Trehalose 6-phosphate phosphatase (Acidisoma cellulosilyticum), 247 residues
Amino acid sequence: MTSTTDIPDLTRRSALFLDLDGTLLDIAERHDLVWVAPELPGVIARLESALGGAVAIVTGRPLSDVDRLLPLSGLAVAAEHGARLRLPDGYIAAHAANLPERDDWVDAVKAALHLWPGAFIEEKSVGFVVHYRQAPSFGSEIGQFLADLVAPAAGRAEILPALMAFEIRAEGVGKGHAVRHLMAESPFAGRVPVFIGDDVTDEEGMAAAEAMGGQGLHVHRVFGGEPAAVRAWLARMADGLEASQTA
């Protein structure tokens, strides 16, 4: 495992991209039961200020969830894996076509949930997630059910395996796309991207950051799998950036 002492500090030319669940927030049994560390919004706000607004939350969650968990004015967000992008000026862009079958698929999953006690569905504006953290023995069965369900929409929809979950999303969206799009916009353009994430869905975001000369930091490999360690490192980075501004 790489230590946080082995990675370069953020500089005033950094652009910071942060996953939410499993990175900034500890994983909860259900997505609606997560705990937000009291100091976290303040640390994110300090980093936003020190980096000229070049901080973005890149998450699978809907935009409304991010605003509820981190109520910060001017925060850039790539929600639903980049299907919805909000820039620091508040402009919101849709970067995924709606799936006309989505509502029918949601109804089909809801009708089948009784077959997998403990599993539940998380609805999003474009797609949805089926979580089986509380029903691990049904993972393969759920995956096959979803594969059969969306097969007729091949080329327009895809199934993304995540941590104890399967996500149905529009083809072509992803965290790598979100990073590339944001890096072409002010205040991110011309900076060095740093992406921090923990899940398979974050790998493409890390790869995009690295392809642009930046870094992809995996929570399990760099921070011991602990969101608390990520939060502590970000607080230290905020301290250092603020000190460099006054030096």
Notes: The chain has two domains: 4-96+173-246, 102-170. Residues 93 and 203 are 23 Å apart (CA to CA). The chain has a mean pLDDT of 92.
